Amino acid sequence: MRGELPADWRRQLQDFIAAAVAKPAAVATRISSQQVLNVLGAALPELLGGSADLTWSNNTDFKGYRTVTPQNVAGNYIHYGVREFGMCAVMNGLALHGGFVPYGGTFLVFSDYARNAVRMAALMQQRVVLVFTHDSIGLGEDGPTHQPVEHVASLRLIPNMRVWRPCDTVETAVAWGDSIDHATGPTTLVLSRQALPPMPRTPAQVAAIARGGYVLIDSDGAPDLVLIATGSEVGLAAEAAQLLTAQGRRVRVVSMPSTRVFDAQDAAYRASVLPVGTKRVAIEAGSSESWWRYVGLDGAVVGMDTFGASAPAKKLFEHFGFTAANVARVAAGLL
Predict the structure, then answer these.
(1) Taking the model in full, what pTM does it have?
(2) How many CB atoms lie under 10 A from the CB of residue 4?
(3) What is the distance between the terminal CA atoms of the chain, rounded to a whole angstrom?
(4) Which residues of the chain have pLDDT under 70?
(5) Distance CA 166, CA 168 (A)
């Protein structure tokens, strides 16, 4: 009830991260999240999960979970039904009561329905974990009604809210660890529907994920261009960097899964990741508004400033310019 967690949960999470580094696999980050939950569900009896009628799409269930029912209130998972606001309000109450670390899932676009309760979690500084999946036009054929565009930027604006948009299993595990550690406010985990390629990292880079933004790929010599990306666009940035390097450019790729955590780092670290005076391009399949502060007026953002469309994800990414060739073209134009 005092919020103290079992002593070894962090070790078990680190073991999972080490295994993910050793055996990388391309999976959707919503699947990566479920893999993490299989570890945390056993390690943290305080966890109380759920979903607003999308359990098997959000992948918020875990091995050995027990459903709360009128006949059995000793479970650790709630099927909330189609009631996103009600789910988040209940999670706020659970966090305020003490003894629980509540999390709940829905599609990112449906976070609008939960907005008042999400804002109250931040206002009350409660440890609530919001698992928002299907995070972009990568959702595909469901079309613009279900494709979030402005939602990540909007969530990043909420005071006390930590937003993580991880690019692979390792970043997803780090994000989950931070959400459990962060006892003075809510965390939003923004996760993909589609499979994302694993990124190779050194041990130092794995450790640096927890700082919100870090150098994933570096150039030979000081970079003359920095590509900043999150989530599904990190792999895209890595591909674009290869094209630009072949053109003789010195390119750095920065993965920034959490802008708020990165902004909380000291100035020297932030400058070491984003060198002053270097041209920058930010890439995210969402609103471009929140990225101009990182690229400046002489930089560029490859983002979404219209609604999406209904088509397979690959065709949508091509249509809206989320290709390595287009990113390389935009970047080369700055130079």
Answers:
(1) 0.97
(2) 7
(3) 56
(4) none
(5) 6
